[in-house]
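User: Could you walk me through two proteins back to back? I'd like the raw sequence and the C-alpha cells for each, with a short line separating them so I can tell where one ends and the next begins.

Assistant: Of course. Protein one, sequence then structure:
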Amino acid sequence: MEMYLDTAKTDEIKYALEHWDIDGLTTNPRHIQASGQPLDRVIDQIAELFAGTDKPVSMEVNPRLTRAKEIVESGRALAKRSSNFVIKVGASEAGFEAIRELSKEGIPTNATLLFHVAQAWHAARCGATYVSPFLGWKESHGDSAETLVGEIFTMLQIHGYPTRIIAAAVRNARQIAIVAQDGAHCATAGVDVWRESFRSPYTDMGHERFGAAWDSFDKS
C-alpha cells in the first residue's frame, strides 16, 4: 500500500518527501485555504515540489462546477500545469461523465467523496484512475466504514477494473491497518495521523526500559 500525504502546506510536503519518501499527495480546496496562500501560488508550488518525479498529485477541480463540460475544461487546464497532476472530481452524475471524457483523453482522474460501492463502480466503469472512499467522514456521522474499502476492492477485482483505491479521510493507525489489509492501493492522511502511526505507547515504554538498562552499563 502506498503512502500519500493529505495537505497543501508546502512545509509539510517537503518534510514528508524528505523523511518519509511519500508516494504521492492528495489535496482539496479546504487544504489550500488552510495553507493561507493564494490558490494559484499553492498549485504552482506543489507542482514544483513534485516535478521530475512520477509521484501522483490529486488536484481538485472547482467543486462548484455542475456541468460535465465545465468540469472537463477545468480538468484539462489543471492537467496542463503539471504532468504529476491527477484530476480530482467529486462523485456526481456530471462528475462521472467528466471522468469518462478526461479518461478518453488520457488524463488521470481521482473520483473523490465516495461513500458507497455503487459510486465507486460508476467511477471505475467511467475509467477513473483512482477512487477515494472517505472513511473518517462516515464514522464521524455514526456510519461504520470498516468494510467499505474491502467491498470496493472486491467489486474491482470481480469486474477486472484497473482502478486503484485511495483510502481517504483516514484518521488513525487502526484505520490505516484496516485499509491495508482490505486491499487499498494507497492511503492518504494528514501529517499528524502519519506521525502518530509511527509510534505506540508500548514502544515508548520499551525504549524507556531498555534505555534504563543501557544506562546501567559501565561506560569507562
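----
Protein two, same layout:
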Amino acid sequence: MNILFLVSNDGGNGVGGHYNSVNQVSLEMAKEHNVKVVTLGSRTSPVVQDNPYFDCHVMVGKGPGTLIKLNRELKKITKEFKPDVVNCFDSDSMNRILLLPVMFGAPIVFTKCGGKNPSGKKYQHADAIVVFSNENRDWFINNEEYKSNDIFLIPNRVQKLQFLEESKRVELKDPGKITFVRISRLGGAYEKTLLDTFNLIEELNRNYPVELVVIGRIQDETRFGALVKNASDRNLPVRYITDERAAKGSGFLYLADFVVGTGRSFMEATSLGIPALTPASNSDFPVLVNNANFNSFFDTNFSERNVASDEAIKNNLSTIQQLIENKDKYEGSRKEMLTLFREYFGVEGILLKYNAVYNYVVSKRAGRLGLIRRNFLYLVKFFMGK
C-alpha cells in the first residue's frame, strides 16, 4: 500500500507533539508499506525533515488562490507515487487537500493528535478519524454526526528512547541533587504546568537538594520572561536550556530523576522508566502517576485538562517524598512506568492498528463530494483565514 502522510506548519517551530507523532507513525508503517511524508505551509518541520521518508515541503498559504499551486505541486508527487491512503496529522493539511482533484482518488484518514474535545456539536469529518485519548474517542462515538466504526483509538506513537551516550552529554547532572526535568514549549501553552512545578520545587527544596531543568523553545519572550522572573523572585533552583538543542529535548532526559510531562513528554519519560508527574486542573502541584491513578490521566491525554482524585492529591507529596527517600520504592515506580509504556504508548502496536484503519477506508470506497459537503463550513473558515 502507498501511504502519503501530510502535516502543516504555518509559522511555528515545527517541533510539537504532532510532528513527532507523524514522524514515528510513518517510520513504523514504512516497515510494511511504501511511505512518503510531505509538509505544507510557510515552513517545514525539523523533526519531519529528518525522516528518511520525507519527500518535500510545499510552500503554500491559506487563501483559496493557493489551491492551484498546491494541486500542481502534489501532482508532481503523485505522478509516480499514487497514494492508496492520505493520512493528515492536522486539520489544516486536511482542509488544504479536500478540494484538490489530484487527491480525489485516495481516502483520507485524519489523525487528531490529542487536544481538548471540540467546543461545539460538530467537527471535521474524514473517511476515518484516529484519536489518541479516551476523551476524544468518547466525544466522537457519542456524537450522532459520526459513525462509531469511523473512529479509532490508537494512543501508541512513541519510540522507546535510549539515554544519550555519556561521551555526547554536554549538560551534566549534579550527582548531589535530585533533578526534575520539564520539556515543553515556553512562554505560551502549558504555563500552569510550569508554575505548578515551581510550587513543587519550592516545597521540596525545604528538605531536599532538588533542582529543576526546563527545556524548550521559546514561543513568546515576554511571557517566558515573566515565568523566569517568577522563579527568580522565589529563589528557586532552576536552569534553562532554550537554544536549538531544545528542539530534541528528549535527548536531555539523562538528567532526570523525575519528569513533569504532558502528552508526548510524559510518554517518552515512561519509555525510559523515569518516574513521571503530570498536571491536574484541580491541583497546585503536578501529580505523580502510578497504577492507581493512571486511567484518569490517560483519559485526558496527560494534559492540563487532567482531574486528579481527592486521594491522589492528598497522597501526592508524601508519595514523591517516599520515592526520594527510598530506593526500593523509586525502583518500583520505574518498573511501573516501563509497564505502562509497553501497554499504552510503545510503537509495537502501531503497524497492526493503523493497518486496520487503512484497510477499512480502502474497502469503504466513500465518495469525496460527501466529505466536502460535511466539511464545507470548515473549508470556508480556513480559506477565509478564520
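Residues 177 and 209 are 5 Å apart (CA to CA).

Let me know if you want the two compared in more detail.
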